UniProtKB/TrEMBL annotation:
Gene source species: Anisodus acutangulus
PANTHER family on file: HISTONE-LYSINE N-METHYLTRANSFERASE ATXR4, HISTONE-LYSINE N-METHYLTRANSFERASE SMYD
Protein name: SET domain-containing protein
Ranges where the SET domain occurs: 27-274
GO cellular component, one term: nucleus
Source organism, top-level taxon: Eukaryota
Ranges in a coiled coil: none
A matching Pfam family: SET
Stored CDD domains: SET_SMYD
Amino acid sequence: MSGLFRGRKALVSIYSKCNLSGLTSPPPIEVRFSESAGRGVFATRRIGAGELIHTAKPIVSHPSLSSLDKVCYFCFTNLKSSNLLPFCSDQCRQHSKIFYETEKQADWSAFHDYCRTQGLKYPLLVKRLACMIISDAATPETLDVLQPATLSSEMILLMEKEYQLLRSTFKDAGFTDEQIAFLSKQWYINVLARIRINSFRIELALGSYEDILLSAAASVEAEAAVGNAIYMLPSFYNHDCDPNAHILWIESVNAKLKALRDIEAGEELRICYIDASMDHDARHTILFEGFGFHCKCARCMSND
Ligand SMILES: C[S@@+](CC[C@H](N)C(=O)[O-])C[C@H]1O[C@@H](n2cnc3c(N)ncnc32)[C@H](O)[C@@H]1O
């Protein structure tokens, strides 16, 4: 059993890492072992349908390449044409100032071009995390508590080029060996293995009528996802093809976890990682190829 889950103290330390926002009291949940899916999130009291269970701020986030100039560097809120810097507010600028300055020192065009042509999004999160580590806004161990994916040797081989590009971009920008000492191939593989099964693809639910019109026009040519992000507590939610909770984003990268139906104290809270309207075989293939597991939820076990 992971050292993190030996006793009450361990749970408190998870909450303190969770960056929960907008809450005055701890959320009505706890992280503990489930019967069939490793660690999971459980209700500590009855939660009513539609209730906001908690909110969460990301540990690391990065806009998709097609959204880079259109959304806030930090929170993904749509930028106005009057914004000179890639921030929607002074608060976001202050929050990300140190790692934004680090990121800005390097020329990312070759790295971005490679990610664009190969259709890669996860290396962008590693790039952002690396900038945060260099700036002391994160540590190399930041994602260690999250479950890693099992990567095949082919996958690891494919990472070589993006890893080398990331290193050379920092080196070409004048970062010293000491500053990027953490950036070993093994560190890169470990981080990507965690990003692979724990990152969320962010699609914003839009607030204003203007936003909805703009989005309708943009979605004809761009992908719907505005970016990707990793959170602490939301990463412990297991999957169910008939979930009792869901995660949503309204106007920014800050996540809201909501109950889809009444949930009893002690019940596990589960979200759906994929499109639940697909049939049994399609769901199984996607969950196995994308997340590396055979779903054991009640709906799958009844062959629905
Ligand atoms: C995002 S993590 C969820 C938290 C994870 N259980 C942990 O201990 O950190 C996703 C992983 O949890 C496990 N998992 C989630 N939902 C599952 C399910 N319905 N059936 C079996 N395993 C599941 C799989 O190992 C999957 O790769």
